[in-house]
Design brief:
Layout: H1 6-57, H2 63-77, E1 80-84, E2 97-101, E3 106-110, E4 130-137, E5 144-150, E6 162-172, H3 181-186, H4 188-195, H5 199-207, E7 212-217, E8 224-235, E9 238-247, H6 249-299, H7 314-383, H8 388-419, E10 428-431, H9 432-441, H10 444-449, E11 453-457, E12 465-468, H11 470-487, E13 493-500, E14 505-513, H12 519-522, H13 546-556, E15 561-565, E16 569-577
Parallel strand pairs: 3-5, 11-13
Antiparallel strand pairs: 1-9, 2-3, 2-6, 4-5, 4-6, 7-8, 8-9, 10-12, 13-14, 14-16, 15-16
Length: 586
């Protein structure tokens, strides 16, 4: 895990935040849990007291009817309860009791809170169970029994006591109460004695229907109790009050156990927080790490396929956007590269065109200056009346130079038409060998003067036809053959080859024997006024525009043309589309 990585930062921040929250929760439990528990328990008891008061108002003030209400309230709220008269004296009520159905009558067994513990009462008593009780009758009709011992037993009852045996028809005993509930119920008198001296202080609030809160501690056990008192609907004997008392000992015990629990559980929670934070940080940061790597590749202009995050959240959307951005940037960069290459080529072409333009102007100036100088010189000689035997020679030279300038101007005009794309071809079916032979025949005088001869290489009996503009192709052959004769060595052979280079193409090659062209000049040989040999003077002939015109004509025919050095000289070649049409029969 790198020091400044997002995984480390997320892990540290998550762990610290969870530990801070955990510490605050533990601190809040230590400081406020006990108070919260007290307040919650007291408020719940207060609310149930108000409900009890409402039910008490609909009940006849009969002890036999009130006692079950008290017992049920005490079981439900784990509290001791008593009804007080107007002098804050406790009414004699026994909320817990048993009723036994004996032979001939029903006996009520009152469970007193004094002198008896829960251990003395048999466990799990239910309706219909048979039970034997020894005790003392409290009324003349022998229907209310104060219990002393619960049986069955084989011994005879003690002197002064009676034994009653029967089936349980009703039962209300302490349930879901804290330890020793009967002892807690017996403490009501002690708590009441401690509260009565201050009763006058709270009398107005009690009569107004408010609930008075107080706390009392049992000096023998040291347990704190919450004491709540409120008024009840007045009975026939005057004002009545309800006193409820509940132990606060479980609060302290819960807080103590919670502190011990925290001591044991805190290290486990810390370890779990660290592990879960590490896992969580890796899960959350994984897409961020992938996106960071993708962005790093984009920064390096690496537009290869990026792993896409397959999720429907913001990370997945960002990953898809970055992938789309990568593709768009790749496409744009490729387009810019192509445009840049094209622009560089255009700039080189422009520079080359500029150089050619300057060279063209220089060449034109040179080509026109020389014959004009010659014409002027001979014209001045004629003006000075040179000897009559020289006049014819001077006039002949003036005419030759005028023809040379005219040819140059005509070639320039022709070339300008090609460059302006003002030339339209008139293609037709024509015999290529016949056209070449016709052009070659026109060079008989030049061939004879330089002791050259032309050799044709073609398949015997094969006379291919091509589709082309006859006048323009004748001009191409004328220029190429003229160039080959001009630069050929004396007493050599010029070879003209005509053959099928493919199923639809016919290639023509014109090769002479002579000096080769420098490699760096091969690509510029087709430019106007470009001469591979700067040392050649005007005596070699030509205007310097012939090959440029040839290039434009062949490009209009969509022809592939080439120039190359051979073992003995130079070869020019071009191809034309073969015509498959049958000649018209006459």
């Amino acid at each position: 895990m790198r020091r400044h990585s997002i995984v480390r930062k997320l892990f540290v921040v998550t762990s610290v935040l969870i530990l801070i929250v955990f510490s605050l929760v533990m601190l809040a439990e230590g400081l406020f849990f006990e108070r919260f528990y007290r307040i919650s328990k007291i408020h719940a008891l207060e609310r149930n007291m108000n409900e009890f008061a409402d039910r008490f108002g609909y009940t006849e003030p009969d002890k036999r009817l009130v006692s079950p209400l008290l017992g049920a309230f005490m079981n439900q709220n784990d509290a001791s309860i008593a009804v007080l008269n107007g002098r804050f004296e406790r009414e004699t009520l026994n909320p817990y009791y048993l009723e036994l159905q004996t032979e001939g009558q029903r006996v009520t067994i009152l469970i007193s809170t004094s002198g008896m513990t829960m251990d003395a009462i048999p466990k799990g008593l239910q309706l219909g169970d048979k039970l034997t009780v020894d005790g003392i009758f409290m009324d003349e009709k022998d229907t209310i029994l104060h219990p002393v011992a619960f049986g069955p037993t084989n011994q005879e009852p003690e002197l002064g006591m009676v034994r009653v045996t029967g089936n349980i028809s009703e039962v209300l005993l302490p349930e879901q109460r804290s330890y020793n509930p009967l002892y807690q119920d017996a403490l009501i008198d002690d708590a009441l004695n401690g509260w009565v001296p201050e009763a006058e202080t709270y009398l107005a609030r009690l009569q107004a229907g408010s609930v008075v809160h107080a706390e009392w501690m049992d000096e023998w056990s040291g347990v704190e109790y919450a004491v709540l008192i409120r008024s009840l609907p007045a009975g026939k004997d005057g004002d009545l009050y309800l006193l409820a008392m509940t132990s606060l000992q479980p609060v302290g015990e819960a807080v103590g156990i919670l502190k011990q629990y925290v001591v044991y559980i805190a290290p486990i929670i810390v370890v779990l927080v660290i592990l879960l934070s590490m896992i969580y940080s890796k899960i959350v940061s994984r897409p961020l790490v992938q996106l960071s790597r993708s962005a790093e590749r984009l920064a390096r202009l690496d537009f290869t396929e990026h792993p896409e995050i397959q999720s429907k959240d913001e990370f997945g959307e960002l990953s898809r956007n970055m992938t789309a951005l990568s593709r768009n940037l790749d496409s744009a960069l490729r387009e810019l590269t192509r445009a840049n290459v094209k622009m560089q080529e255009d700039m080189r072409e422009k520079e080359r065109s500029e150089e050619l333009r300057k060279e063209l102007i220089a060449n034109i100036s040179h080509e026109l200056k020389t014959p004009l100088g010659i014409v002027k010189g001979f014209a001045e000689g004629l003006q000075d009346e040179v000897a009559s035997d020289k006049r014819d020679r001077y006039l002949s030279l003036i005419v030759n130079e005028a023809d040379r300038m005219n040819a140059l101007i005509m070639d320039m005009l022709e070339l300008s038409k090609f460059e302006a794309k003002a030339i339209q071809l008139l293609p037709r079916r024509l015999p290529l060998l016949g056209l070449i032979q016709k052009v070659a025949d026109s060079f008989d005088q030049q061939l004879e003067s330089r002791q050259l001869r032309i050799q044709f290489n073609a398949d015997e009996g094969d006379k291919p036809f091509v589709t082309a503009d006859a006048r323009r192709i004748e001009q191409v052959v004328l220029n190429l053959l003229s160039n080959a004769i001009r630069h050929a060595e004396e007493n050599s052979v010029i070879t003209i080859s005509v053959y099928r280079s493919s199923a639809v193409k016919v290639t023509t090659t014109i090769e002479n024997v002579g000096s080769p062209i420098a490699e760096e000049d091969l690509s510029r040989i087709w430019d106007q006024f470009y001469r591979a040999e700067r040392s050649r003077d005007r005596k070699s002939g030509g205007t310097g525009l012939g090959l440029a015109i040839v290039k434009h004509i062949l490009e209009l025919h969509e022809s592939e043309y080439d120039v190359r050095n051979t073992n003995t000289g130079v070869a020019f070649s071009f191809n034309l589309n073969e015509s498959r049409e049958e000649p018209n029969e006459k």
